[in-house]
Amino acid sequence: GTPARIDARSLDYSRMEAQYGDEQVRNFSFMSTITERKQIPCWLTYTNADTHKIIRDNLHLSGMFNGMIEGVGPRYCPSIEAKIVRFADKERHQLFVEPEGLRTNEMYVQGMSSSLPAHVQLQFMQTIPGLENCRMMRAGYAIDYDCLDPLQLQRTSEHKAISGLFSAGQANGTSGYEEAAAQGLLAGVNAMQKIRSKEPLILSRSEGYLGVLIDDLVTKGTNEPYRMMTSRAEYRLLLRQDNADLRLTEKGRAVGLVNDVRYEAFTAKRSLLERTLQNLSSTHLPPNAEVLAKLAELGTAPIRSGMSLLDLLRRSEMTYEKLQQAFEVPELPEVVAEQVEIFAKYEGYINKQKQEVEKALKLENKKIPADIDYLSIKELSSEAAEKLAKVKPASIGQASRISGVSPADVSVLMIALEVMRRKEYES
Ligand SMILES: Cc1cc2nc3c(=O)[nH]c(=O)nc-3n(C[C@H](O)[C@H](O)[C@H](O)COP(=O)(O)OP(=O)(O)OC[C@H]3O[C@@H](n4cnc5c(N)ncnc54)[C@H](O)[C@@H]3O)c2cc1C
């Protein structure tokens, strides 16, 4: 569903609270060089008892409540009707009135999705501070759609039963622009790889959110619109926006999606990063009077024995900029300096997570033959056998993530595979 769009010229901004954007502009793409762009604020306001009464009085007219729409709505962006019914004890709900662009008067009323008739939407919106005289430019609405069962897909996005059919996006049971775009990319790449008779691109759960998304879909399926929440990933210390290029550019290059200009920019950045880390770890500060004076000036504790610049940077109060002020380290582009700081401060935690990934990888590498007959493995619980037969996991790792497959079932499966392997060896 979506909320109404209202006319920016009909609002009373003195009754709402301005919400400004980030001070430091960050680019979506590593190739973008934009550092400044005109910013305009969003506005915060709230529903109240009058708004709620109008909605409650008209619930029978809401497609989501009167049976017209049968599907389950998206959990993370419920309609205003759903919020009022589900959270009946709440006296108010916050709304963000967001400009849709610099060259339009349309404002998006975030938090106010509705499938009530247009005249009811206008009526309840006009009870809200700042929106008393609002003009509605488009009414909100909800739609109901059907989808495939993603358990029918492989991790490449190809249909298990129909060779050459790749499926992506909302049709796989997801909701969201990024979810759809990311799957489209994967399905497109793998369709092309198949035509070229090349290895498919399969991203693991530790390599990218797209890896988590596709693994969740094809392993667990979904009975409500699936959203890629970051909390679904177990390796969030590794899956950061700041290192997306370091994680994925080589993979993109291998399938022909990274042109020379991007690749050269990327390798230059990566070598600068590696060189800097090398220099910082091999430059040692002696505990002499000059160094101690500099440290005092930077507001950090003195050192008793020699310390590398990298170890100094690990201190929470230290930044690369401070190292530059006091010691002769070269100036770096901001994105590289940021990477250096992240590496220095989180190295211990990141390495620990990498070890966890390696441990999990062992299970991912234990492949399961596609023709295995789960129903004939008597020691498996019947629920596990049924689920395994339906999902047809490619590895023990994937099998262990299927809901209904217990650690005991995983052990049984590993023994069964070992027995099969020995039998094959002996014959
Ligand atoms: C009202 C509403 C509000 C939403 N708000 C948000 C939001 O704020 N944020 C967010 O992230 N997501 C939002 N979503 C979800 C998001 O828009 C969708 O999940 C996403 O756009 C789906 O993309 P897709 O490419 O999978 O499908 P679509 O964008 O539906 O693309 C499918 C395309 O296939 C075409 N097509 C269908 N049949 C055929 C055929 N036989 N031959 C040729 N072409 C065909 C269709 O015309 C369409 O262009 C919203 C969805 C709705 C409905």
Structural key phrases:
single chain; 427 residues; alpha+beta; Elongation Factor Tu (Ef-tu), domain 3; Arc Repressor Mutant, subunit A; six-stranded antiparallel β-sheet; two-stranded antiparallel ribbon; binds flavin-adenine dinucleotide
The rounded Rg comes to 27 Å
Strand content: 5-15%
How many DSSP H or I helices?
Answer: 14
Largest sheet data:
6 strands, antiparallel
- The low-confidence runs, each spanning 5 or more residues with pLDDT under 50, are none
**Heteromolecules bound:** flavin-adenine dinucleotide
Mean pLDDT across residues: 93
Q: What class, by secondary structure content? A: alpha+beta
Q: What's the architecture of the largest domain in CATH terms?
A: Beta Barrel
Overall tally of domains:
4
Helix and strand element order: EEEHHEEHEHHHHEHEHHHHHH
Q: What spatial form do the alpha-carbon principal axes imply?
A: flat
Helix content: 40-55%
Gap from first CA to last CA: 60 Å
Explain what you see.
- Residues 344-415 form the tRNA uridine 5-carboxymethylaminomethyl modification enzyme C-terminal subdomain domain.
- One of its GO terms (molecular function) is flavin adenine dinucleotide binding.
- Keywords: Cytoplasm, FAD, Flavoprotein, NAD, tRNA processing.
- The chain has helices at 49-57, 80-86, 118-125, 177-195, 209-220, 244-254, 260-282, 289-298, 309-314, 320-326, 334-365, 382-391, 396-400, 407-426, and strands at 5-7, 17-19, 42-46, 94-99, 106-110, 136-138, 284-285, 307-308.
- Helix 1 packs antiparallel against helix 3 and helix 7 crosses helix 11 (334-365).
- The strands form two sheets. A six-stranded antiparallel beta sheet has the order 2-3-4-5-1-6, with no helix packed on it.
- The mean pLDDT is 93.
- Helix content is 42%, strand content 7%.
- A hairpin with a 6-residue loop joins strand 4 and strand 5.
- The radius of gyration is 27 Å and the shape is flat.
- The termini are far apart.
- It has 14 helices and eight strands.
- The longest helix has 32 residues, at 334-365.
- The structure holds flavin-adenine dinucleotide.
